[in-house]
């Protein structure tokens, strides 16, 4: 989202001699403060943008600067356009429909047909299989909170069904495995947390703002336009120190399901006709539901304590149906 806005702002400034910050803010539906923060990011990337106060002031690129056609290779442009195309499948939030067309202007006319064929060959669809009417509204609220550094309030239902009231500093909106999450600083836990959008309800956008710079070091997040590098602290969930090595045994009838989840090469045939998979997962409620989701066609080989826990859950499930 931010990258798309940065590219759009750059193209606007290249096409116009000078533009007001408020005009950019209205065009991209963000605050003026966000626009100035974007301008600072572009300056750090080596693009000479000047701001001038006063009646005749505004934002402009220094005279003589231009974005050459050969600043991006054909393959790089094709990759960017494919990425933009895929983003449009993930949500319907304030996409800049002209951005892809503007970027295509950087492609030499002789390569235009080849680019069109490339975009037909490679498709990335990030949308979910089902439709969720509330999703667009909730995403719009969270997007605004993230871009304007706003505090939001909501009720959160955790995996155990417990409901808590949360006030959080909205830091990052994350799409991972076709699920939307909010990475935010929780004022109740006094720490960063990852909140699943489907577990949030009664989302309220508060007037209170927070200083993002105060959290940059604590969140261990470093974003630069030059390298497009992003440290992703939410991936600590699957870090080696937070996971346990697990061996699962699948029956022949569940082989295709296991191949789809773990990959064909991960399955090791056994003399008794089953297939074993060795994986590393965090031990939590998600793992229990994941294993039980394969029904009677999977068996936990190790570790022993997980095998015992799954066995106990199965006994409790069976007891519900004995009557």
TrEMBL record:
Pfam families: HTH_11, WCX, WYL. The keyword Transcription regulation applies. Keywords: Transcription, Transcription regulation. Residues 2-57 form the HTH deoR-type domain. InterPro entries: CBASS_pafABC_assoc_protein (IPR051534), DeoR_HTH (IPR001034), HTH_11 (IPR013196), PafC-like (IPR028349), WCX_dom (IPR057727), WH-like_DNA-bd_sf (IPR036388), WH_DNA-bd_sf (IPR036390), WYL_dom (IPR026881). Signal peptide: none annotated. This is YafY family transcriptional regulator.
